[in-house]
Amino acid sequence: MNRRCVIVLAILAVVLTTGCSRSPEAKKARYLERGDRYFQRQQYREAVLEYRNALRIDINNAQAIRQLGLAHYQLGEVAQSFRYLLKAQELEPDNTEIPLKLATVYLLGGKPDEARQQAERLLQKAPTNLEALIVWAGSANTPAETDAAIRHLETLRPHLSKEARFHLTLAGLHGRKKDAAATERELQAAQALEPNSPEVHLTLGSFYSEKGALPEAEREFKTAASLSPPGSMTQLRLADFYLSAGRRDESKRLLAEITAKAPESLPAWRRLAEIALADGRLDDAKNALDPVFKKNPADVDAHLLLGRVHLARRDSAAAIQEFRTVVRTEPRFAVARYQLGLALLQAGDAQQGKAELKEAVTIAPTFVEPVLALARVNVQSGAYQPAIEDLEQLLKREPRLSGAYPLLSAAYLAQSKPAQAAEVARRFIAAAPQDPRGPDLLGLSFAAQGKRTEARQQFENALALAPSYLDPLNHLVALVLAEKQVDRAIQLVAKQIALVPSSATHQALLGQLYLARGDGKAAEGAFLKAIELDPRLPEPYAALGNLALQARQYDQALVRFNELIKGNPKSPGPWMLSGIVHELKGDIPKAREAYEQAVALNPRFAPAANNLAWIYSEHGGDQDKALQLAQIAKEQAPEDPRISDTLGWLLYKRGVHQRALGLLKDSATKLPDNPQVQYHLGMAYRQVGEKDNARKALQLAVASPEVFPGKDEARRALTEIK
User: Fold this and answer.
1) Residue 258 has pLDDT above 80, yes or no
2) Which secondary-structure segment (H or E) carries 716?
3) Is the overall model pTM greater than 0.85, yes or no?
4) I need a surface site. Which of 307, 503, 509, 649 has the fewest CB within 10 A?
5) Could you tell me which residue, 332 or 462, shows the higher pLDDT?
6) CATH class for the domain made up of 639-722
């Protein structure tokens, strides 16, 4: 064989060898092998990536699907674990590990019946399988089932008494029966068998925590943490204990130590983000998520948290994007559906927001938050009966759920059913006698029935329970004001301020009452005191600004509104007020900037959209954008006559006279004394040939002593008609 042939054969051999090593089957085998290696080392995040690579080659690979379910389970990612475990059970029905994990997932997901079915499948084959017994006992959902579980486990004591987890399981069952002595006896037996078990110490910590024995609980949680590797879920339980005990700084310090020693501990980073979010430190929350995304860009929990950060910032678009990322990965993740619904509602998309909330309830019928949110939206939109039905059903299941009663009472009151609202309030008082909202709701129900004396008594009862609670005071003041007794109302508020002297909101209410009496100086003093007590409270700034506006002190008003903007930079309201002042001063460029800022913060903020549309129309600007803004304003506030006037005038200028006329007629009916609206209406009538109506409207406009843009044109048009 010549040299050329040898070289060719050698090259061919290399090519064939390389080709074989890169075949799909070879790649899949390599991914699975690496995944198993990572899994054995408890590097579950890395294992997930390898198993997913294998699934890209073979979408129905049983090993990859099973191991993905188990890896996500170990990572505490229950929703992701469930999807893979369910599929794995179809592919490997004889695998005993899968139903165990599935049963646990069902249990965590609030589905005890499904968990019990999975456990019983295993117990039929192996009656003393401790793992299956633990899940089976955990699925006991009623007192009778709990008693039955205890009796059954006692029959197995001769076989399992040397197992610490057997005693932990019995301790859990006795704990449900509130039998503290039996619970502690079983826990001590477990500790005697395994004194260095983190699980035993964790369970003891939970037991002492429920008893209120916090020093003993801390000791056990600390012991459990010391017996566990850095970054473990056991150490996180200690951080959670500190949080529940109100020791936030210690929790944050511990979490910082965990992330320093085990930066790969993604749950610790996520917990830091949760704490920062709860504290309102939104930048810190986002920063805490950066290491999570760096390690795992697809982390579902991190995307969910980031969405909540955006939601808190009122960045609806970014929040929706994050929540939809989660939902695409986990379509049946009820919490993500709920948060997506909130974001859509915040963005003004009520229809789709309600659809997501309904989907969350469908997925998890016992998930309370979306039921309440959906009821709240229904009440606000006038769909009272669906709200009542949902809330009555919820309270039948959870009669101590305090958040449902105010909504249900409001729905009945909106339907003019105060007797039913009163009954709801009485149920609330029975369920939570120390909650001041109960008597406050009962007072509102009495007031709606004209029972003023009974209403006053209930409002006073609410204030006796919570002197700082503003709602019953507001309602009591409203009763007094209805009787034209402003001084009496001021006395009531002053009396309450004596009990809560550091309350800025009470001072702001006092200021409003001074305004009602016509005492601007006293009102100013009360508003300034409110700002001194709480500089973040927006109402006093707005009130002081309005006082300055009424006195035509525009620069002083701007100072107040600018202070309001500094304290609430993401709120469109202060920008709107600033725009109005600039417009009154004749500074149209600055008014436009302020309105544009308000619309940027909330594109569906009708007052700002309307005013900005008018400026674009009358002072130079994008006319198409002006029309779009006016249409948005009309969608959001369809009954506002000023918005009808703006949109009607824009359409008139575009030559769409008939449609403009309908809007302008509506506006003039509601604002008959506004000469500019009459001018617009007259011009529209003129264009459609209704000369008599045009003449009447233009005469009203011209006869007004008020000076307005277009008055000269109104005179000319009137002359031409005559």
Assistant:
1) yes
2) helix 711-721
3) no
4) 503
5) 462
6) mainly alpha
